[in-house]
Input
Amino acid sequence: MKDRPMPFSASPATASSPALLEVRGLRRHFPVGGDFLGRATQSVKAVDGVDFSILKGEALGLVGESGCGKTTLGRNVVRLDTPTEGEILFEGIDIANLGEYALRPFRREIQIIFQNPMSSLNPRMTVGNMLMEPLRLHRIGDHASCQRRVHELLDLVGLKSEHHDRYPHEFSGGQRQRIGIARALALNPKLIVCDEPVSALDVSIQSQIINLLMDLQDELGLSYLFISHDLSVVEHMCDRVAVMYLGRIVEIAPTEDLYRRRLHPYTNALLSAVPVPDPTVQSEEIILEGGVPSPINPPPGCHFSTRCPFVTEACTSRTPELVERHPGHWVRCIRIDEIT
Amino acid sequence: MMPTGPVPTTARPASGDPAPSGVLAEETGRTVLTVRGLTTELRVEGGPIRAVEDVSFDLRVGETLGIVGESGCGKSMTALSIMGLLPRPIGKIVAGSIMLEDVGDLAQLSEARMKAVRGDDVSMIFQEPMTSLNPVFTVGFQICEAIQAHRPVRGVVARAKAIDMLELVGIPLPELRFNSYPHQLSGGMRQRVMIAMALACEPKIMLADEPTTALDVTIQAQILNLMNRLKRETGTSIVLITHDLGVIAKMAQRVLVMYAGVVVEDAAVRDLFARPLHPYTVGLLKSMPSANRRTGPKQRLHTIPGVVPSLNALPRGCRYSDRCPDVHDRCRQTEPPLAAPDSTGDAQAARKVRCWLHCKT
Output
């Protein structure tokens, strides 16, 4: 598996700089069903062989429809879940199979922000205590310095010191997301997995949070794995974008490159389906038939073959590999030469 | 309560700019729904709040009217008021009229009469089809139930009609799917079932409250195209409620922008996107990431400062005054009326805006 070509980085120039995170051949299969002895008979292949890397200070967007495995992938990178197979190299060290104790130093480096801030914040803890908790758990500084850090964090995410003693229900959705961000920042992480951080927010609040995330990235040199189904948010925020379909990355490229010349038929359909907020534009929509197939029995060969307008017999018999079509622009399709 | 104004029945001039894509030929200009001064109160702890205040609009045959706004702006409450489905006992229409062609004022109807109208003349689809479908009955049974509630058909006739409806909304193998339970269908399929049920009695109006918000973009595109096709085929007018300006641009011919319970702007969709007048509409359009394509990625997005005010603590004067970049003294004193803007050039397209900047008198 090691000698397989890998979608490492945007261009040859940056290829030399070491990746902060490198994911190789990651699989996560969930056993389901069961025979009369309770042994699993089938498995949901939520993540089915994913390779990518994130450089220091880079934001990688991960887009795809619900059920494509993007959240599972994110949870595995943060190691809230353990992959079935594959490697997760953080600064060169494989954390994919580390135990809870060995993981502890990495917990400080990799943090996560969830979609729904209300369900990810403890309703019975004040904001101050919530931000204090990670500092206490990791035994960082004395009480006074922790207090200073909490106020520093509140300031960093645009909350006021007076918010310190309030409970989550006293805040609006946007403010709650700010608390979630502050909590993720408490331990000075290098990588933050953002799992749909703005999807539950209104447009005017969404732009505030996007600005905050971009400012923090500049100030603190953070790297993001930015998971979203909103393609325009990803286009705006990310340096590179990976498109996922049924457990696999089908295309990964620098943002501008991907949105200008999308290669994979799925990426094409996905981008053309986004309604353009301009009534004078008549977008050429590619309407895909049907829905995403079940990840229990994904179609053989190319997973997209059941909905692809360019499908041939070969597509269902051979699993395509990611190939580099342009510098840094990788695509997984065997007919890519014919259809582009 | 009587309608406060005459019902404008004049069609938009057929000459002028050609109909853009999405505008349909059978837009005859006949008005099916006339809402005037609709005001809805919710009696909550700490006194009643006005969730909807003085909302007026006309819906023409074959037209899609978009209502756009952020959460809590009153767009769903407007739809529930029309449907007579306000939360009981706290919700109540306190003023205004909802005149439906051939039926009368929905705000005055008795619950029994409203029951006959609901699902027959007006129907509604919701954001999450799983919560609006009954999990213990097959989808076929539920569509039949909707038909039998309003039409004197039974048995195989109702069944045949239900299968026709499933076929109409593009469900493959409709005879087989007739016997499926909601949990056996995907989100997109469930929303198709909801649409089939809503259209089963050929209503005059379908209210769609965030019909695609819970769906993926490729499925959203399917459902939006389906709604446009059905509108063309059945002539049902649609009130489409959404927070997504992209969906509005694709679907609607006319748009109401709501903020904190009131309509702040009312315009034809092309005018609204080409030249938004109300500072809130301007801010909303500018803060979308896709609107920043020209400024380039990784630039800071435009933001509207602050949050939507709570309905029991509205600022004095204009409701948007504490977030508005163009606020001046008058805005903080008196609330502006929803009126035609002073600026010329909009004479042919009736548009209204609730802002002192555009209404000097």
